[in-house]
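Hey,
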Amino acid sequence: MSNAIQQLHGVVQQYQWGKIGSSSMVAKLCKSGDKKCKVEEDQPYAELWMGTHVKAPSKLVKSDLDLRQFVQENVEVLGEKVCGRFNDLPYLFKVLSVAKALSIQAHPNKGHAEKLHAERPDIYKDPNHKPEMAIALTRFEALCGFRSVAEIVRFFQLVPELCTVIGEKPCQALKTSNDPEEQSAALKSCFSQLIICDKALLQKQLSALVKRVSAMKGIDYEHVLGELLLRLNRQFPGDVGCFVIYFLNHVFLQPGEALFLKANVPHAYLDGDCIECMACSDNVVRAGLTPKLIDANTLIEMLEYQPSSVEEQLFEPTPTQHNNELLYNPPIDDFAVSCVKLPVSLASYEFSVNDSASIVLFIEGAAHVEGGSDIEVRRGTILFVPAGTVLQLSNIGRNVTAYRATCLL
């Protein structure tokens, strides 16, 4: 029956920046959730995809269909509102395990995505926007959004090599800017000059900085972000991203803390494991810390040059009417994520019933899915719950933590 809960297997992406073997949360979840999964201890396990994205749709455990085919043949499972608005599952749900920095990147808004797809469909393969949210599963490190002007100007003083690359005139303009519009224009000028700088000049100044910082100790080393600089230069020697750290907020999330990344916000994930949910797109515009295609001019023109603080980057969940649930509901229509934590003392638990389809990932725990199902929940179990369908757990044998992606129209 199309309204029955379906167990899924996600699709693993083995990008080179992923954690290796069983150190990866992705690998651990796959190995536990799929008895056929064999983890190779010398291979990276970077992402686990759950959804209908054409590049890697999830597989139904008890069918020859993938989730994309199942939804296309049974569109009513989406729910009336989602079917009318999107005619597909509007989000892509992921787990990321990051060992090496992802690219300095941003995602286009809907109008820009349509334009990029029309002009360069070989690079930008779909016309959708890609707002995204990351929820930390372990300590999670990222760069996100532009720092305050005062912080960036302080780095101009501490890191003269940065000013040499950018040029004295743009740096001075940022130092003397006052109103928000003037600051935004000056910030764009400085960042642009860095991203498109002469490569020989970049290499020379970065080498000088790395040599100088390598000899530092204590507070001076910390003030110039010495550990991060040297780590990124080891991962991507001579890359412009090593200087970008002085422009973007350096953020550390604890488990359960989240970032919401709207369109045109520069960011890079650096280390750790997270839940990620995004609009169903794979559009990424990159400018550094990557072996992939760099589209610097597009990135420069699309970014939102708005200074911010680390605190402003954090996205707070809200309690729901269910005592065991927190809701991460960003200001977009495509997706929301809830976290459900159940103690072993509960005899049973009924998830809230949504009028749109959900994907539920169990990070830990053991339970049975009620309602005529033979599904036994364990770490790594993935469920597709059609709109209007009740998900009830019984026989809770270990504390349960589950993340649920849905669309709240």
